[in-house]
Amino acid sequence: MSTTALTRVDELDPPELPYDDPALRGPRFHEVLSELRERSWLARVPLGYAVLDRESAAFFLRTRSATFPGLKIAEIFQIDEGPLAEEIRRNILHLNGEDHSRLRNLVNPSFTPRAANCWRPAMREVLDGLWRGGDGCEFVQSFAKAYPSMVIATVMGAPLEDAPRLHHWSDWIQRQFDATALMEQRPQIEEAVQEFYDWAAELLKRRRDDPREDLISTLLAARYEGDRLDDDELVNLVLNVLVGGVDTTQSQLAQAMRLFAEHPEQWKALRADPELAPAAVWEALRVEPITPFTARIALEDIEFRDVLFPEGTVVMVAAASANRDGVDPSFDITAKRDVGKPLTFGAGPHYCLGANLAQAEMQEGLRFFAERMPGLELDGEPGYGSVQGVYGLDRLPLRWDA
């Protein structure tokens, strides 16, 4: 028990972070965060508070006294029946304690670096199939959207022609984390969840009858201390992989290519030494995380820095500023960073399940494009998406030397 007098967080007067301002994107986004970070480690947002420095961000991501507020969102929006309610209840993001540990222990072997590496030849094959040569493209439509969904289809053991549907479902199901979308587009989100459930159930049946070298077959055989996944758990884990591995990888790859187009000396370094690809991925994750804010809700009273965060307090963890805290913010794939990994994949018990697969996809993508796109540069202004949810690009016009 702390002997220091605590101040309730709602008794403080931190600066405001304009989280719902549509202009909060692109260079302006980082200017605002930098200005706030100079003033405080804490900011106020519409539903609660945001923590801005690395130490506080890591604390709230790792503490078991807070969790992702998905169940609270369901309660607020009265999502108590139907496919979306089932998905929310079974989502590994919303599970804690023994239930969460059991599922992670069952599926972790399928998401190790070694397991991800097995899919690298398939990633290269997908990229080869998408490449059309030339001296320019709109990168989001030409590569970023198609590549992750085709890789996920391959990983799941689904036909490549199903990739557009997987992208569609991922896009819609991801919107459950956007309050505005839940208010205005809930029927479409519900429909996407149900369509995915129907599709996955059929694929599950086929793989049970005809197991192959794919994720679903591996998960069907997964065991831990005599335990195994039931069908509902398996389908929802596959859904988590889909939602977490398509839109996010698409967005992070596009942001990485934008950073390289804006820093031609870094592109030259990667072209000269493709072994810099892993460092390049980490640097892109650090400088422009596509999960700039991750929500947590206090399960009980939390004490941090002599401040009391009462049970039920919503805390937004700002990886976009935490990743730059105490570090030169410039994009440099050769720099030695001594502050640990970026917090883009989270931290603690809910560290991103598909992080190794996402890194492998990005590494293969950057190597592939670096070899084929000399003289990379922007061919117009990027179209930045919203920092609420997954922070991607709507368009990225690029050109290079043919």
Query: Can you tell me the CATH topology?
Result: Cytochrome p450
CATH architecture heading:
Orthogonal Bundle
Whole-number count of domains = 1
Helix content: 40-55%
Number of strands: 15
Overall pLDDT, averaged? 92
Please identify the structural class as seen in this structure. alpha+beta
Question: What is the C-alpha radius of gyration, as a whole number of Å?
Answer: 21 Å
Write down the overall geometry: globular
* β-sheet strand percentage: 5-15%
In the predicted model, the low-confidence regions spanning at least 5 consecutive residues are none
Give the number of helices: 18
Strand order, sheet with most strands:
2-3-11-8-4
CATH class: Mainly Alpha
Q: For the record, what is the CATH homologous superfamily label?
A: Cytochrome P450
Please give the alpha-carbon distance between the first and last residues: 66 Å
Sheet having the most strands: 5 strands, mixed
How would you name the oligomeric state of the polypeptide chains in this document? single chain
Molecular structure report:
There is one protein chain. The protein is globular. 50% of the residues lie in helices and 11% in strands. By secondary structure, it is α+β, with helices and mostly antiparallel strands. The model has no long low-confidence stretch (mean pLDDT 92). It has one domain (7-399): Cytochrome P450 (Cytochrome p450, Orthogonal Bundle), CATH 1.10.630. Helix 10 (163-173) packs across helix 13 (231-245) and helix 15 packs across helix 18. The protein has 18 helices and 15 strands. The longest helix is centred in the middle third of the chain and has 31 residues, at 179-209. The protein has helices at residues 26-39, 54-62, 70-76, 83-90, 97-107, 113-117, 120-130, 139-144, 146-156, 163-173, 179-209, 215-220, 231-245, 247-262, 264-272, 277-287, 319-322, 355-372; strands spanning 7-8, 42-45, 48-51, 66-67, 136-138, 223-224, 227-228, 293-298, 302-304, 307-309, 314-318, 377-378, 383-384, 393-395, 397-399. The chain starts with 6 loop residues before the first strand and ends with a strand. The strands form 5 sheets. A 5-stranded mixed sheet has the order 2-3-11-8-4. It has a 3-stranded mixed sheet with strand order 1-10-9, with no helix packed on it.
